[in-house]
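Team,

Forwarding the record for the chain on the shared tracking sheet. I've put the sequence and predicted structure together so nobody has to dig through attachments.
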Amino acid sequence: MTKKCALLIIDMINDFQFPNGGKLAEFTKEIVPPILQLKEHFYEKEWPVIYVNDHYQLWKADIALITDHATNDVSAPIIQEMKPGHKDYFLIKPKHSAFYGTALHTLLHELDVTSVVNTGVAGNICVFFTANDAYMREFDIYIPKNAIASEEEKFNEYALEMMETVLKADVRPSDEFIQLLS
């Protein structure tokens, strides 16, 4: 991979307060380590790490405010590990896609990014719609299959199959991406 890449971390600052949110939180705990490993490698390459998150009706791109709002007994362990650092970009989104109604496309263009690595939740909704919009904007798309989670494993598998076959996404596991990045 010789093109400049951005790591997108989608909706990991999440309150999981919705039907099946507890199930999604359990699956999300499994994807935290691979995402953090990817994040570390992006730091080493000096490539951008961009969090794109739901705004929870707060409508402020304020990391602390959204983190405080989303933190509860279920979400706290995930948020504690996944919260953005000072090197990271942070955008809020009004709908499912990280591109819709956000400055993401402009930011990626300003950073000379040609490829995106989509991670986060939910794999079959926000990650999927973001991948679709990245495809429509002609970015190369990478979706580490062990770095996305959905409420059901079958939803995740179906989303990965669609992203690979229809959107031409590369869906190899995160450790293979790390090797590719090295």
